Amino acid sequence: MPNQKTTPINSFNSSKSSPKSSPTSLTFLVNSFLQYCEVEKNLSQGTIKMYHFYLKEFLTWIHETSGTDVVSYKDLSIDVIRDFRVYLNRKISSRGTKTIQYNTQNRYLTALRSFLRFLIVERGLAALPPDKITLGKSEPRVPKFLNEDQIEDLVSVQDLSKKSGIRDRAILELLFSTGMRISELSGLNRDDISPQILEKREFAIIGKGRKVRTVYLSNSAVKWLKQYLATRKDPFKPFFVRYSGKSMDNNDSDGESLRLTPRSIQRMVKKYSRSAGISVDVTPHVLRHSFATDLLMAGADLRSVQELLGHSDVSTTQIYTHVTNKHLKEVYQKFHDREK
């Protein structure tokens, strides 16, 4: 898949004459770390933005706590990290009045560990060892998913008299058929799913961590993707385009400014879930969960589902097993669930 246009990560400080640009300052080193992630490690923009967000908040906190705009990496100590963990534990979520979850706290700490590893390995600095930062116990996650009837309800409320309705039906079918991440789907180009590829019913995508994997298309997905492509009379590169909103950018010969964004897809999925009367808070990721759950409940093995989802570690895929393990239910019914 060709590289998409990306927005560069802004530096925390752009003044070259500022003390913050000292080679030992945390601000300078965090900027260097983000550039390293993008240029040398070739990490996805999503991962880089995640590091940027969490490390920026850490810098803001440590500058406010220390009362100075310039903090050296040498000032990072176990005590400082412990104080930061107390701050995270008391931090109120931006979405409500509750404190942020342990899983969210761990993402801050994971970003810090990656940064410290960079300082030691890539810069040769005597920084705090990353293994000194231990992650908190993660909260158990129960993935939300839709059953077969709910999926049918979700894909039956589009206005198929409109091009946008056919496009949206194709998107929903593709999400459930492949288990793709929303960023992967938004980034598709027309070359990625050509008519020839539709006949093969499989194609390769570049997923998280720049990993390539093959995804497969159901009969229903192929049907609606063909119908959607039949509505496209333009030469533009993005596979899914918007039909409303701001005008196309000047000098945009590829139609990149018309690409349907992940946020637009999220809003679309929620709109149809409300129209279908589904009580679950449906997101594109819930459709990904539904894809995995459907496979496991039909008897697919965990390793195969791991490959289809593009998970690097099978432990990530294991969140589905406690809701799909039919064997345990059969054992229970055979040996314990009996009438007196």
From TrEMBL:
One of its GO terms (biological process) is DNA recombination. CDD domains: INT_XerDC_C. This is Tyrosine recombinase XerC. PANTHER family: PHAGE INTEGRASE-RELATED, TYROSINE RECOMBINASE XERC. Residues 1-22 are annotated as: Disordered. Gene3D superfamilies: 1.10.150.130, Intergrase catalytic core (1.10.443.10). One of its GO terms (molecular function) is DNA binding. Pfam families: Phage_int_SAM_1 (PF02899), Phage_integrase (PF00589). Residues 10-22 have a biased composition (Low complexity). Residues 24-120 form the Core-binding (CB) domain. It comes from the Bacteria.
